[in-house]
Amino acid sequence: MAFPQLVQTLPLVLILLAVPAPAAADFNISNLSGVLSTALTESLLIALPPCHLTGGNATLMVRRANDSKVVKSNFVVPPCRGRRELVSVVDSGAGFTVTRLSVYQVTNLVPGTKYYISYLVKKGTSTESSKEIPMSTLPRKKMESIGLGMARTGGMVVITVLLSVAMFILVVGFIIALALGAPK
């Protein structure tokens, strides 16, 4: 007896589930952990909103941890070329790879500080927002603590001296060749 009622109400339930709710939808944004250095000293790199929001008016909201002040930045969501990846390979050849970074860079931040980032995107009559994600900038390092990876080695000095001597001999030989080969 309950089975016929279930068969009658099932299409109505499926239709109600398929209709999207009029409230704002949420989407996830991601940081670049494991792909690039997510944090710089005074800026952060944030993934752009999803492709279905292309052409929408995006507002990026940046809030400092333990602070109620929100800094907003507005832009139009750029078009996608295929599936939007954070880092996509544009061209790859023998010995080189050209990549494109599809991110938004937030600048003028305080070094060594935690921030909460979120998007609000309006496209037509719909509005979608992202979940708030925490990100941090790196603290500044003292110049003395930064190791020099390109310090001069003995080999570099020897090569420089040999090239300098060879250039001197080449210039002297060129001058002598000009002097001996000049018509009298």
TrEMBL record:
Keywords: Membrane, Signal, Transmembrane, Transmembrane helix. InterPro entries: Uroplakin-2 (IPR009952). One of its GO terms (cellular component) is apical plasma membrane. It holds the Pfam family Uroplakin_II. Residues 1-25 form the signal peptide. The chain crosses the membrane at residues 155-180. This is Uroplakin-2. GO terms for biological process: epithelial cell differentiation.
